[in-house]
Structure formats: structure tokens, C-alpha cells
Model the fold of this input.
Amino acid sequence: MDLSESVRRIGVEPQDAVVTLVEVKRKSDTRLRREVVGQMLDYAANGSLRWTAGFLQEAFAATCEKAGADPTRSLEQFLEDDGRDESFWQSAESNLRAGRMRLLFVADEIPAELLRIVEFLNERMAPTEVLALELRYFTGSGYSTHVPRILGRTLAAVAQKEGSARSNARRAWDRESFLLDLAERTDWEVARAIAAFLSECERNFDITWGTGAQTGSFTPRRPMISARGPISVYSDGRLDIKSSWLNDSPAAIEWRERIKPRLESLDWRQAISSEKEVTLTVPAAEWLPKATELLAAIVD
Done:
């Protein structure tokens, strides 16, 4: 049994779009305890902040191309659905922002000390799931096999994750719920400025409301041009710029090429982006002073 089959046994379903970080070590590796745990938490902390849907999609495409596989076809086969590719990556990013991911330690034998750390973290980290996968190797009578065993799912951890899952169910946002959440998460001036920006967007675009479990969002769209939008604004105040996602029609590509230099001219100094700037995340303190210029950049 290979590692991919074993990972599926932990309950990973394509529709979940939950990013799973895997750390593989041999029992003989002396770093299997403290160093490997610290490294995994470092990946999780930075990935949840910096990895965007675009970054994940590009990394997946690069891996497929290196293996000689077609990225689009590979994703369709994985999802068993040829219409979910865009929403899948967006769901993965939303899960990362909410801290909903899996941390998986894999070894031929899991030491008792590492297992205790895994159980401790899994019982206390919500909604992140922390598990260990032990792959013991057995031989005999001319045969050999790996036998997988999932460790770390204590009764306390299961109860805690079930409660977290209920609280992280996706929801349908609208104008009223977005503004209420915005008012709770940000100060009065930020909330007022974003509400004004939303009103201006409503005058110029159709608005699509997000389905995030924890954070509301809206995306201004031109349905006759593209099913997607160049920006999204979240109820925690941040802005995502994703003009590169405008690629689902010739008209969308034309719109993207018109607005891209305008968006770049706004000079987003404090933004966080993927390596190829597929999606740019800008904090409220930086984009709100440029809200008028931002709107002008995306309006034809």
C-alpha cells in the first residue's frame, strides 16, 4: 500500500478541500520528535497566512507537469467532477484562513513521545487536526507489505473536532450579515469605509456573496463578461486582488489585461502574495485609503 492510499484512510475527501501537511521520517531519524514538530507547526502557521488559492493551484500544476501529467485532467479525476476546479481551490484557501487543515506525521514506527505530542495537539487545536500515520513493514513467506495505523484520535479529540466542525459549517452571507460581522471585527471607521465601498460597487457591478464558515465576503462581478471577479473584500477588512482569475472567456481576458496595469500602479507595499502574484492580499489599512482609485481601476 502506498502513502497516497494510506492518507485517504484518515478521512480525506476531495470535497473537503482541506490542506494536509505531511512530514515523513524514519524511526531511526533522531529529529523525529522536537525538530519535526516545530517544523510542521512552522509550515502550518505560515501556510495558513500566506498560501492563496492561486499559489496552491500553481504548485499543483507544477507538480503535475514535472510528473508528466495534465493538471486539469488530474484534478478532475481527483474530484470526480469537471466543474469544481475553481471552487475547490477557493475552498482550500478559505479552509487555510480559518485554520482548518490536517497535520500528518508519517513514520515506519511512531515513538511514544511523538504520539503523546500528537494527541496533546489534536485535543487542543481547533479546527486543525493533528494525526500520526504509522506504516509498519512486514515480510514473510516471500511476501512483504506495509500496514497503516492511524494514531492520535483520542475520544477527547474526536469530541472536540465534531464540535468545531459544527461551528465551521459553510454559510450563505448577504449584505446584512456581512455588515454586522464587519462591525464586530473592525473599528467604526474601517466598517464605515468598507460599507461605503460596497455601496459604490453595487452601483457598478453585480455582487456575489461568499460562503465562508467564519468570514463573510463579497465579490463585484460582470456576469456578461465573467463568472468571476477581480477582487474580493472580507468582513475582517482584508482585500484579495485576483485579476489573474479572469480567464474564463475571451471578454474576461480582455478585461483582465485592461485593469491589471491599473491595479499594479496602486503600489501595494504591505501586500502578501504568492510567488507569481496570482492573488494579492492587502490589509484594510493599506487599501482603504486607495478605495476610490481601486474602484476606478476595475470599472471600465
